[in-house]
Amino acid sequence: MHDHPTRRSVVFGTLAACASVASAAADDDDPRKEKRPQKGDLLVFSEGEREGQTITPNDLKIGEPPIHAWPKDAANAIVRDGSRLNEVLVIRLDPRELDEDTLPRAADGIVAYSAICSHAGCPVTAWIKATEGNDDVFKCMCHNSEYDPRRGAQVVFGPAPRRLAALPLVIRDGALVIAAPFIGKVGGQQG
Amino acid sequence: MTITSTAVKTCAVKKWLLSSTVAFTCLTAPAAVAGPIENYSPVTPARLENPEPGNWMLYRRTYDGQGYSPLNQINTTNVKNMVPAWTFATGVIEGHEAPPLVNNGVMFITTPMGQVIALNAKTGDQYWRYKRELPEDLFQLHPTNRGVGLWQDKLYLATTDDHLVALDAKTGKVLWDKKVQDYKKGQYLTLMPLIVDGKVMVGGSGGEFGVRGYVVAYDAEDGKELWRTFTIPGEGEPGHDTWSGDDWKSGGGSAWMTGTYDKDTKTVYWGVGNAAPWPGGMHPGDNLYTSSVIALDPATGKIKTHFQYHQNDSWDWDEVDAPMLVDLQRDGRSFKSLIHPGRDAIFWVLERTPERINYVNGWNFVHTDVWKGIEPETGRPIVDPEHKPTLGKRVDFCPSLWGGKDWPSAAYSQNTRFVYVPANENFCGGFTGEKVPLVPGQLWLGTKPEDIGLTVRPGADHFGELQAWDPATGKKVWAHNFPKSQLFGSVTATAGDLVLVGGTNDRMLRAFHAKTGELLWEQKTNSGIMGMPVAYEVDGTQYIAVQSGWGVDAQRIQDALAKGNIGLEDNVPQGGVVWVFAVKK
Ligand code: FES
């Protein structure tokens, strides 16, 4: 059993300045780990050598593949890795290529989307040339759905029924920060 | 999970919204009344061991896996007059791979997303529907299901979120629900359970997620786990030394299809899948019991013996389709055989004894460049290293990853004594092996997924090929070629000398003459057919039933072919429908 979330957040909120990351992150049952990304969350690497480290705008370069990330409640040092539905793809694109829906959600060309395919819920892992066209796109290798992050991650190939949920970003004090909760439904179709 | 009985629910809502008139109409409507099944016939051990000709209660109708119906009312003479008797839309998309099961006039179908629907097999009216509520974070590499197991007055459903659920056959009510493994780690279930002597057996999927495969048995009454046998031997077990280091812990060997059963020797034969990840260099050794058949004692789960079709699998060649049990006369002697047209392109004829499985003969039933031959004493295929995927080098091979025949079942006719194989010819594949770390819950193929190719051999004039083989002589008797489609559907044979199969991208169900291969009848359906046709009888009338609902691997091949721009249809509509046919009187 875990503490009541409200009480815990008050406690950690008070101690945030000196609380160790390890002590907060150690409680796997903390419901805040499962909570979808919130306004004000940071992003941290979800895999690789820098797993757990905060992602900054400088970590992202145009032309490079997306970084897989978890949102992080920075004030309480909680990485929201308690649900795979929280994993996001973060990528820097040329702002001139972004459509009118995508541009306002981007921070200096950096966009973020749910990493969970809207078809049958597999993780979207590839960044490769589209089946139709020359641009690189996100691709889910389970059944080949492709999403164009320049155009709100709309489906450009494969069986996926809808776009990936978008996660608006801003840059604040040099840090990449989540500006609003997911826009759109996260997860695969179930019926 | 929830149980819904659609018609009753609709009435209740309307009553609340409208008036008592509507409620009256609902209660008195003669057709499509949902509700409990009256006079349900319990599925006893004796009935499963010797099923009535008019019923289809096991995956392949009989424990021996032959896929043969003794019904002959619909036959080579009158099949031309076969027309739809009724249809039923499931309301579900993705691959509908389950046979419509029939027990004395009651039909049970399953759909992707864990639904079970009980229908009146004569009229198509629904009795009840069970819908599993799947977890919101579930991912499904294979969104499908291959049928419920029948035992006494219960049904058993294996789900993609890795549970085994027992239902009341009369009402669809959940009796118990057991977690088999953790779906979050890439474990899932798509098979129809095999039930022997009150033991419900299932095998796990997840070979592409670096699992360690297993077969597990539960008590049919209370769902208690009775035994669990890993398909990859652990430390101290025979066969463990065919692995190096810790490779065995994530070595694949998933067992995701229903086994067959020899009731005389009380032996279950279960097919085991590919080694993981794909390139053999990442798991040196023979890798028992991947790409093998294992003989299990259903009472204890003990592995009695095995035969490995090919060693150090590097091609994703699952050999999960369990071998058929056939009494065979060959080379002047009679013996009890196991027959398995393999994904590895070899048509395997083996001899089964209570103690051993012996190699008898094997030959290529489609083109392959991987094998240079088979060692006659051991049945060990001799590999051409040029066509064996390895680390750091692009390697091409034939047939493709989907093999000469994938999981769709072949059939054996007791009339003609031929084996009918849904083969794929002229496909090749290739990839570059790459050391990739295992991330639980993510695809772990040992190559960049985008690197995986499906190619067509130069000069290919067809892809799908329905083949008839005489296993006694090793001769191909006839073949029907499909110039513009793969063949990805199970085959059924009947005593009316019909061979029934869907599996093509033109959405057809077809009936062939079992002796000559002549195409006798075809019907375009709503979607593509991947599941197996069945034959059954109610009140003296014979029917043929099949689910049409394209998806999963048939769709993946389709995408790859369409991408290759070789003029194939790339748009096969989805959506499941049960089709039932009868001869027009
Ligand atoms: S789950 Fe992504 S394409 Fe099917």
TrEMBL record, chain A:
<dbReference type="InterPro" id="IPR005805">
    <property type="entry name" value="Rieske_Fe-S_prot_C"/>
</dbReference>
<keyword id="KW-0479">Metal-binding</keyword>
<keyword id="KW-0408">Iron</keyword>
<dbReference type="GO" id="GO:0046872">
    <property type="term" value="F:metal ion binding"/>
</dbReference>
<feature type="domain" description="Rieske">
    <location>
        <begin position="85"/>
        <end position="178"/>
    </location>
</feature>
<dbReference type="Pfam" id="PF00355">
    <property type="entry name" value="Rieske"/>
</dbReference>
<dbReference type="InterPro" id="IPR014349">
    <property type="entry name" value="Rieske_Fe-S_prot"/>
</dbReference>
<keyword id="KW-0001">2Fe-2S</keyword>
<dbReference type="GO" id="GO:0016020">
    <property type="term" value="C:membrane"/>
</dbReference>
<protein>
    <recommendedName>
        <fullName>Rieske domain-containing protein</fullName>
    </recommendedName>
</protein>
<keyword id="KW-0411">Iron-sulfur</keyword>
<dbReference type="InterPro" id="IPR017941">
    <property type="entry name" value="Rieske_2Fe-2S"/>
</dbReference>
<keyword id="KW-1015">Disulfide bond</keyword>
<dbReference type="GO" id="GO:0051537">
    <property type="term" value="F:2 iron, 2 sulfur cluster binding"/>
</dbReference>
<dbReference type="InterPro" id="IPR036922">
    <property type="entry name" value="Rieske_2Fe-2S_sf"/>
</dbReference>
From TrEMBL, chain B:
<feature type="signal peptide">
    <location>
        <begin position="1"/>
        <end position="34"/>
    </location>
</feature>
<feature type="binding site">
    <location>
        <position position="208"/>
    </location>
    <ligand>
        <name>Ca(2+)</name>
    </ligand>
</feature>
<keyword id="KW-0634">PQQ</keyword>
<dbReference type="GO" id="GO:0016020">
    <property type="term" value="C:membrane"/>
</dbReference>
<feature type="active site" description="Proton acceptor">
    <location>
        <position position="316"/>
    </location>
</feature>
<keyword id="KW-0732">Signal</keyword>
<dbReference type="InterPro" id="IPR017512">
    <property type="entry name" value="PQQ_MeOH/EtOH_DH"/>
</dbReference>
<dbReference type="GO" id="GO:0005509">
    <property type="term" value="F:calcium ion binding"/>
</dbReference>
<feature type="binding site">
    <location>
        <position position="146"/>
    </location>
    <ligand>
        <name>pyrroloquinoline quinone</name>
    </ligand>
</feature>
<dbReference type="InterPro" id="IPR018391">
    <property type="entry name" value="PQQ_b-propeller_rpt"/>
</dbReference>
<dbReference type="InterPro" id="IPR002372">
    <property type="entry name" value="PQQ_rpt_dom"/>
</dbReference>
<feature type="domain" description="Pyrrolo-quinoline quinone repeat">
    <location>
        <begin position="488"/>
        <end position="544"/>
    </location>
</feature>
<keyword id="KW-0560">Oxidoreductase</keyword>
<dbReference type="GO" id="GO:0016614">
    <property type="term" value="F:oxidoreductase activity, acting on CH-OH group of donors"/>
</dbReference>
<protein>
    <submittedName>
        <fullName>Alcohol dehydrogenase</fullName>
    </submittedName>
</protein>
<keyword id="KW-0479">Metal-binding</keyword>
<dbReference type="Pfam" id="PF01011">
    <property type="entry name" value="PQQ"/>
</dbReference>
<dbReference type="InterPro" id="IPR034119">
    <property type="entry name" value="ADHI"/>
</dbReference>
<feature type="binding site">
    <location>
        <position position="274"/>
    </location>
    <ligand>
        <name>Ca(2+)</name>
    </ligand>
</feature>
<feature type="binding site">
    <location>
        <position position="97"/>
    </location>
    <ligand>
        <name>pyrroloquinoline quinone</name>
    </ligand>
</feature>
<feature type="binding site">
    <location>
        <position position="316"/>
    </location>
    <ligand>
        <name>Ca(2+)</name>
    </ligand>
</feature>
<feature type="binding site">
    <location>
        <position position="190"/>
    </location>
    <ligand>
        <name>pyrroloquinoline quinone</name>
    </ligand>
</feature>
